[in-house]
Amino acid sequence: MTITRANRARLFAMNATKREAYMTNFTRAVLGALSLCLATALPAFGQDARPNILVVLFDDVGFTGFGAYGSDARTPNIDRLAQSGTLFSRYYSSPFCGPSRAMLMTGQDNHQTGMGTLVETVTPEQRELPGYSMVWDKDQATIATILSEAGYQTYVTGKWGIGAKGKNLPNHFGFDRSYVMDSTGGSNYDHRHYLPGYPEVPWFEDGKPVRLPEDFYSSRNLVDQMIRYIDEGDADQPFFGFLSLQAAHIPVQAPLEFIERYDGVFDAGWDVMRKERLERVIDLGLVPETTTLAPVHEDHRVWDDLSAAEKAEATRAMQVHAAMIESADFHIGRLLDHLEANGQLDNTIVVITSDNGAESGVTSLENPVFDLLLNGIHRLEGYDTSPENMGLPGSLTAIGPEWASVEASPFNLYKFYSSEGGLRVPLVIAGAGVAASGIQQAPVHVSDLMPTLLEAAGVAYDPGTLYGKSILPVLSDQTTETRGADESFAGEVSGNAALYRGNWKLVRTALPRGDFTWRLFDLSVDPGETTDLSGENPELFAELKSEYEAYVADVGVFELGQEDYAEAQLFSNLLEKTVSKYWPYLAGLVLMLLISVYALFRLVRMLVRRSAH
Q1: What is the pLDDT at residue 505?
Q2: E strand or H helix that includes residue 178
Q3: Which residue pairs from 476-483 have beta carbons closer than 8 angstroms and sit at least 24 positions apart in sequence?
Q4: Structural domain that includes position 518
Q5: Are 251 and 378 in contact (CB under 8 A)?
Q6: Does residue 50 sit in helix, strand or coil?
Q7: What is the CB neighbour count within 10 angstroms for residue 459?
Q8: How far is CA 117 from CA 97, 248, 375, 496, in A?
Q9: Cβ(339)–Cβ(80) under 8 Å?
């Protein structure tokens, strides 16, 4: 038998004791037909009134990014859903957006679907392996595939960003209608990319390239598009809608009217406000009273050391960030109001979450030479990076690591790391069949969402093909447990790794802000990850490491070395693309410098000769 690339992917993705067969198109069709029988056995979600499903995915919103989780941003619509449904305090995603989205869509581990990391951070060694192909097999099952085969109408609007650009578009994987940006990020007003060296961001409708309208703003237009798809559909058939917002990814942008609502809100600065967020989440019951803050990384700036101008610029950036989240909530409210006016909301399950922790990226490097080059590139791309233009068209705003630590508070670090700040994000589920059960403390993984929603819809699936497991019993208030005491789940992206079993967490965070050392934490008392208990529990530590190694072998993780961290690979790729795109300008700049040096040399030489005479 020839071991082809596809066969290798299947061998990595399946363990003989856990997955008896790979789900073929024929098998999925049979299971879809069986859903008619299953639906009759679920009175809360009967065949004649199967629920609509609306999944709203934010981008880079940290644990305390919504009002219900202690944010300074106003999110009244999300907060109402939290009050009427279930709010999870221990929901875990991936620290990178692409892998998170792959798991959300497939219910499998990201490596099982070839999305082991981001396109921008994959190494040459990883590219040779099935877990890092960045391209889905043609028969890759998604939640849209299975729901569509069961009679659901399926729509997606917003950021897609799963794997190689243009290779895994949603119209090939179960979505009837799609209007998507296939990139890790881009402007909220036009096609500009947020990374230097990259071409403009591509948008597709139903798989065909499209241009954005001139008055485009992401949150508004993506909701408008979702409303249009729903209205054009069959009102007698249930729908699955995936609203994938750009809020609050770099570039952080929002309408001025929302930005000005936050004048003065962030004047206390990040050091004070990180502690305030800790106090809020304790008061809300989201974390235990024993929670303490981990020290911030040494490269974080101290608020009181900033000049008045630096403070003003920093607070403005955070105003834009909060405004972007409030603006997104406002437009989510429009969608919910539209469903209610059409009599559809009462029979709709609504899921609100984020793909990973808060973004800590910056738009300057605190290096005069690099920043001079970067500013030149920004001008070439037509960006206006002045403080006065923050958040508006042409801007390129980011909140940086200090404010990201506030958004992730009370947890350690943020996006790109396997610390709680990178993995633990908000999750609110409300609507048809969901009990108003308040805060749930049991751990939930992003791959759990697909089987949960399929079960809620009365659609059959093969649990043996999925990494996640249904948490519907928690949503229907039958239990408060999502897993048994001895059940664990794990995750890995670019050297960042974590395994959870009950209240225990085994974790390794990569460079540059991690140190690649394995640690053990008891999250029931220390979700801030401040006290390593591996030395006090050597047998448990070894046992959990063994479970992690089994996970690595099962799903096909390629273990990177300590120096092969994602940000280094990203910088290398960026440098290559930047040089490739801007080399004529760089060559011209170098030539001008050489001419200037030569002219200066001739001038000095002439002056020396004159002084000698």
Answers
A1: 98
A2: strand 177-181
A3: 476/44, 476/433, 476/434, 476/435, 477/435, 477/437, 480/440, 480/441, 480/442, 481/442, 482/442, 482/443, 482/444, 482/448, 483/442, 483/443
A4: 488-555
A5: no
A6: coil
A7: 25
A8: 9, 21, 29, 10
A9: no
The fraction of the chain above a pLDDT of 90, given in percent, is 78
Q: Rounded to 5, what percent of the chain is helix, strand, coil?
A: 45, 10, 45
Give residue for tokens 């990319």: 193
Domain for residue 171, yes or no? yes
Q: For residue 323, how many other CB atoms are within 10 A of its CB? A: 26
Q: What's 73's DSSP letter?
A: S
Query: How confident is the model over 531-564, as pLDDT tens digits?
Result: 999 999 999 999 999 999 999 999 999 999 999 8
Q: How far apart, in Å, do the first and last CA atoms of the chain sit?
A: 90
Average pLDDT over residues 581-591: 67
Which CATH number do you get for residue 428?
3.40.720.10
Co-location of 142 and 95 in the same domain: yes
Same domain, yes or no: 544 and 573: no
Report which residue type is found at 271: D
Residue 573, Cβ neighbours under 10 Å: how many?
19
User: Is residue 140 scored above 50 in pLDDT?
Assistant: yes
List all residues 6 or more positions away from 427 whose beta carbon is below 8 Å from its beta carbon.
Answer: 87, 88, 91, 351, 352, 353, 444
Which CATH number does the domain housing residue 538 bear?
3.30.1120.10
41 vs 529: CA distance, rounded Å: 44
CA within 13 Å, CB half, 348: 27
Helix axes 218-232, 308-341, angle to 10 degrees: 10
Domain count within the chain: 3
Pair (471, 570) in one structural domain: no
Angle (deg, nearest 10), helices 308-341 and 76-84 = 60
pLDDT at residue 584 greater than cutoff 90: no
Token output for 386: 């002045």
> Residue with structure tokens 């664990």?
488
Query: Which is nearest to 323 in space by CA: 429, 217, 224, 227?
Result: 217
Asked if the structure places residue 383 within a domain, the reply is: no
* Tens digit of each residue's pLDDT (9 = 90 or more) over 283-340: 999 999 999 999 999 999 999 999 999 999 999 999 999 999 999 999 999 999 999 9
Greatest CA separation found in the chain? 107
Say what the pLDDT of residue 610 is: 75
Query: In terms of domains, do 50 and 111 share one?
Result: yes
- SS3 assignment for 413-432: CCCCCCCHHHHECCEEEEEC
